[in-house]
């Protein structure tokens, strides 16, 4: 099947991947509608992609070569223990075959790979979509309407396309948040007991939460990225209708003070001082949500990435899943003789893709934040068994292999 018009609502990671896939598949016209008028490359901080998922995506053409990435090999779980020194006590270590990315650099690589024939429009807000009469309509917030043969919802957590595919489906607040931040890795050189594990992820464990710390490439050199999960302080004024209630630089005294108290009270001295190096402008709070949307396609509408399913970050699978969605879209197009066959094939391939990821991430969140064990009393074998209990038969974190 060749020709036709495709609109992709959302121009970030999933949107760029779908636009490229549509052109490769033979679409006659592809339009990307991105509500943000500024530089998307300024968004976000770090993320990781499992080496096996990356290899599959590179082979499929969904992950362009040459995007800066930092190799990770192992994950070290540590607890505060004054007798063990400033870095804390290592309670367990596991293989961690991932590469880390800077969100902005990954997006930039995907954006540059989008073919020039794509009409990529920024500063265009979509108010709603519908599918009727053998086509799909897009309504714009500023007025006006356009019709396409197919509309892809790659518009993330607050997807307007999702509402048309699955009315009433909305992400659910998990009961805790994550503080996120990043800083120049060169600053670690000024700390006593400097980080000597650049190829490792360090997870700091404490009662009621955990914090994942790892290096990422940055626009101006390596950076240290961290994600700290814990319940927010009572009365912090958080809104739970937005994935980033307090954007970078807008934490406020109460949230900033709560974070500082956590670092001082629960963290090994070295890691507490390390995270304190983060500038306020590079620190923000993100409430944690999850959602499985079924179906992932209806009429002439498809959902992709976070619009289709919202997975807690513990699973380290978000970017890989978005690119896998685009890969499955291209494969569905190649085997379809009509738009109806394309939509049905995509639904069959990706309709249930988020279900297991969401379930696993919920187990990880429960074990690592909501119902934390007394890590300091556990042996390495006990921590390993605890980890396997969270997996509950899953192969591991980082997402699922693409079906052949």
From TrEMBL:
This is FAD-binding domain-containing protein. Residues 287-356 form the FAD-binding domain. Pfam families: FAD_binding_3. PROSITE patterns: PROKAR_LIPOPROTEIN. InterPro entries: DHP_3-monooxygenase, FAD-bd, FAD/NAD-bd_sf. GO terms for molecular function: FAD binding.
